[in-house]
## 1
Amino acid sequence: MFRPGRISKEKALQKLRHYCGYQERSHGEVKQRLYGYGLYKQEAEEIIASLIETGYLNEERFAIQFASGKFRMKGWGRQKILNGLKEKGISSYNIRKALESINPGEYAKSFTRLAEKKWFSLRGEKNIFVKKTKWRNYLLQKGFEPALMQSFSFPEKAGRNAD
C-alpha cells in the first residue's frame, strides 16, 4: 500500500494498533507495513517493541492461530503449515508450539476424510498405480506426511462398488 510522503511515528503506531487489533499479525507483516508508511528501521523497531509490550503483537499467538486456521479452514497438513510459517519468518520455537497445538485426533480424522474423499474421486481411474500416484501427490500437496499415507488402508471394495 503506497502512501505519498512519510507519516509520523505516532500516527503509524495508531494505525498499527488498529491493524494488529483486527487480526493476528506476524512481525514481518507489521515491519513491511511500517516501511510502507515511510518509516526508518529504528522507528519501525521502536513501534514493534511498543506493540509487543502492549500485547498487540505476539508471534506465538500468531503462529498458533495461523496453524489452526489453515488446518481447520483449508485442510492443510503439518508440512504445509510448517512451510507457511517459515515463509512468514516465524521462529522455530513458535513453529513447534503451533504444530503442537493441532489436536492429533482431529488431524488423523482430517487426513482420513481427505484421503478417502480423494480416493473415491479417482474411481474412474482404472490403472491402480496411476490412481495411487494421483492420490499420494494430492495429499503431499496438502502437506500431509508420507508416513500417514503408508499407514492408510485403501477402501478397495467400496471404491469398486462406487463405480
## 2
Amino acid sequence: MTKVLVIENEAENRNIFLECLEAEGFDVISAENGLVGVEKAQEHAPDLILCDIVMPELDGYGVLSSLRQNRATAMIPFIFLTAKSTTGEVRTGMKLGADDYLTKPTTAEELLGAIATRLEKQAAIKQ
C-alpha cells in the first residue's frame, strides 16, 4: 500500500486531504506542523509527502530543505499544497527541490493526478 504523509497545520484541511487519500486506498500519516512532519518522514519513510508552506514551528520550505539534506528522505517525492501562489513563491519551492506545487483550493482530481504522476516518475527512477 502506498504511504503518503500529509503535513498541514489546519486541522480541517488536513482531514479533507486524509479522507480523500484514504478513500483512494492510500495509507496516510498526518503531521500538524513542519517539525512533526520531518520526524514522521524519518520514522515512517513515506512514498510521497504533501506539505503546506505556512506553518508554525517549521515552515514547508524548512521541511523540504531538511528532508533533502537527509540521505534517507532526500528522494521522497514532495508536493507543496499551499495558498502561496505568487511566481516567486512557486520558484522558491521548486528551487528547493519540490517535485510539484499545487495551490489551494485544489480539486481531488488535481491532487490525485499530481500524486499519480510523481509516484509513476519515482517508480521509473527506481527501475
## 3
Amino acid sequence: MNNHRRSLLIALAATPLALPAQAVGPANVDAHGVAIHGHDPVAYFADGKPVMGKSEHSAKVGPATYWFANAANLQLFKADPATYEPQFGGYCAYGVAQGVKPDIDPNAFRIVDGKLYLNLSPAVQKRWQADIPGFIDRANQNWPRLKGQ
C-alpha cells in the first residue's frame, strides 16, 4: 500500500463523518439524492464559503439534487450547471486521486481554476493542498473508472 493511500485510510478512520447512504455511482448524494450535504454550490463561488441551501430552491442534474440559498443562485446554476457543480461528482478530490470515493466535509473546499473541489476533512484537505495539480491530475485519471462504481 502506498503512502498516499495509507494516509487517506488513516484520515478516513479518524474522521467522524459517515459515508452517505448512496456512496456509489457518479454523484455523492444522501438517501434523498441531495448533494453537498444540502449546501449551495453557487455560494462557494459567490460568497466564498459554504452556505446551507433550501429545498424550495432546488435543481436536479443526473442523480444529484442541489439546494440553493436563494432564487438568484438557483438561476445562476440553471444557466450553467457545469460551472458550479463540484468536481468528481462531489466526492473528496484527494480520495478520488487515491482511487476511492470518500464523502466530504462541505467546509473543506477550494476553488481551483474556476472549479469547485471538496475534501473529506480539513486534515485531508491539508494533505491535498501539498500538491493540488498532481492530485487533480491523478483524480482526473481515476474518475472515469470510479464514476460507475
## 4
Amino acid sequence: LGCTTRAWWYGFQIMRAGQVITWAVFKDGFRAAHIPRGMMTIKKREFRALRQGSGSVKEHLQKFNHLSRYAPEDVSSEAAKVERFMEGLQQSLQYQLVVCECRTFSDLVNKALKLEDKRRAMDDTRKRKLMGSGGPSNPKPRPWQSAPARPSYQ
C-alpha cells in the first residue's frame, strides 16, 4: 500500500476502534473520503442513461460494469441487473432477447454476445454474396433511374 492509502486506512480503523469493519462500511468510508458526492451523482446519471448505441455488446458490458458501482441500488438483485442491462441494449437485440428466459446476468450477456456474433456473420455472408455476384441479380429500376428502352416494332 502507498503511504497515502496506508494513512487513510489507519485513520479509518482508529475512528472505528473496536468495531467490525465490513466490506460495505469500508466501501462507504472510502467513497466518502475519495470520491466527491457530485461525481457520484454524475456517474449515477451516466449509468442510468447508458445505451449500447453503435458499440458492441462487449463494449457496452464494460461500460455497464464500470458505471454500475456508482448506482448499486439499481443493480442490487440479479433481476434488477438483467433488466437494467437489457434496457441499454440496441432495440434489435432487445427484440430478439425478449423471448429468451434469462434469469441471470451472465446468461443474458452470453445470449446477447452470441446473437451479435451470429448477426455479424450473417451480414458478412450477405455482403460476400452481393460482392461475388457483381450485385443483386435482376435489380429493379430505381425511381431515379430511367427504365430500359423498350423495343419498338413497325
